[in-house]
Design a protein that fits this description.
This protein is of the alpha+beta class. Helix content is 21%, strand content 26%. It folds into two domains: 242 residues, Naphthalene 1,2-dioxygenase Alpha Subunit, Chain A, domain 1 (Alpha-Beta Complex), CATH 3.90.380.10; 117 residues, Rieske [2Fe-2S] iron-sulphur domain (Rieske Iron-sulfur Protein, 3-layer Sandwich). Helix 2 packs across helix 8. The structure holds FE2/S2 (inorganic) cluster (FES) and fe (ii) ion.
Length: 384
């Protein structure tokens, strides 16, 4: 992204966004236009359309998108809107086409899986009707580590620009080969930016996340990393995470016991193993964190100005999932507790915004990532 997410602590008191940016339907529509219809958005995992003719229907910024895999194994994305009079082509969120065709349920126009119009339901093809000009509208689609991204803009921004880390940062986790052991879908009553902001500061951790704060001592101090301490150190002596960034002594993963629930990923850098968590963000829709034994992906999308959907996947290597006696419950239970605490506090944040006395709040020094986020929103023309 255009903003330096690794900016230092804020040195001065800066205003937060105006409260109306989290409430107003017109502001929301502007964000849909400037952010959600212009950037690469994570729409699913490749394993959700693992086989030929599998499809997935997903709504981004009020636009239905059809993701499918053709008989050659290639993934395509189309606007889910028939070129006849605009009907949605799929009734269900996911499934498999019985044959290599998409048939509109309204007047039976049919398209091949490459989006070409095959036939119309009309007995009288009108003069001048150009079948080739009436194929499904294809959207740019990319596969990153098993996450499928689509962009509603036919002229998308550079793919890597939305990530806060190099695209290979989590390669050691081999996420493309991982599958989800569990998915939680949660709708929370807050603006999507409230959740984004919550995810990117830890001032709330001591009060909101007592268990997480015990697992990650630096969070218990209200800091994202030890280097945010006033002494100003930002890296460890060996260039790795600053001392104290990692998990409490003896703990190795984000689980209820601190013990991994499966084998550690081979080939993790020593610094990453010691840290116990490695974060990566794809603006604006995906947060991934790698632990030594699993990775967690949180996808978010706005459903309305004050409603946000979260989809959380717990990703493990296939062989870990298939191992006899494998039980991911301690990982899921731990993360779900943290997620539930965040969801509740985000709703609390949202409820209070209507009464914000000055129409906006203020950012504290530790909230530098939020400032970077706001700068990005402004640069994208999403906030006036
Ligand atoms: S709207 Fe699809 S065939 Fe008429
Ligand atoms: Fe939190």
């Amino acid at each position: 992204m255009a903003t330096d997410l690794d900016a230092p602590l804020l040195r001065e008191s800066l205003p937060s966004l105006p409260a109306r940016a989290y409430l107003d339907p017109l502001s929301h529509e502007r964000e849909l236009r400037r952010i959600w219809r212009r950037h690469w958005i994570c729409a699913g995992r490749t394993e959700e359309i693992a086989n030929a003719r599998d499809f997935l229907r997903f709504v981004i910024a009020d636009r239905g998108v059809l993701l499918l895999r053709d008989d050659q194994g290639e993934v395509h994305a189309y606007l889910d809107s028939c070129r006849h009079r605009g009907a949605s082509l799929c009734a269900s969120e996911r499934g498999r086409f019985a044959r290599a065709a998409i048939v509109c349920p309204y007047h039976a126009w049919s398209y091949d899986l490459q989006g070409r119009l095959l036939r119309t339901g009309s007995r009288h093809p009108p003069a001048g009707f150009d079948r080739d000009a009436h194929g499904l509208r294809a959207l740019p689609v990319r596969d990153w580590s098993g996450f499928l991204f689509v962009c509603l803009d036919p002229d998308p921004p550079p793919f890597a620009a939305g990530f806060d880390q190099p695209l290979d940062r989590l390669d050691a986790w081999r996420l493309a080969d991982c599958v989800s052991a569990h998915r939680t879908v949660l709708t929370i009553a807050c603006n999507w930016k409230v959740f984004w902001e919550n995810y990117n500061e830890c001032l709330h951790c001591p009060g909101v996340h007592p268990e997480l704060s015990r697992l990650v001592p630096v969070y218990g101090r209200g800091l994202l990393e030890a280097a945010d301490d006033p002494d100003g150190r930002r890296t460890g002596v060996d260039g790795g995470p600053a001392p104290g960034d990692g998990l409490r002594r003896g703990a190795r993963s984000w689980t209820t016991t601190g013990e991994p629930v499966g084998p550690e990923f081979p080939g993790l850098a020593e610094a990453d193993r010691r840290a116990g968590h490695v974060y990566m963000t794809a603006m604006p829709s995906l947060f991934v964190v790698g632990h030594v034994d699993y990775a967690r992906a949180v996808r978010l999308r706005p459903l309305g100005p004050e409603t946000t959907e979260l989809r959380v996947d717990y990703l493990f290597p296939r062989q870990t999932l298939a191992a006899p006696g494998f039980d991911p419950a301690p990982a899921i239970a731990f993360a779900e507790r943290v997620l539930g605490e965040d969801a509740a506090i985000c709703e609390t944040n949202q409820r209070g915004l209507r009464a914000a006395p000055d129409g906006q709040g203020v950012l504290m020094p530790e909230e530098y990532l939020i400032r970077g986020f706001h700068d990005w929103l402004r640069a994208e023309g999403a906030i006036d």
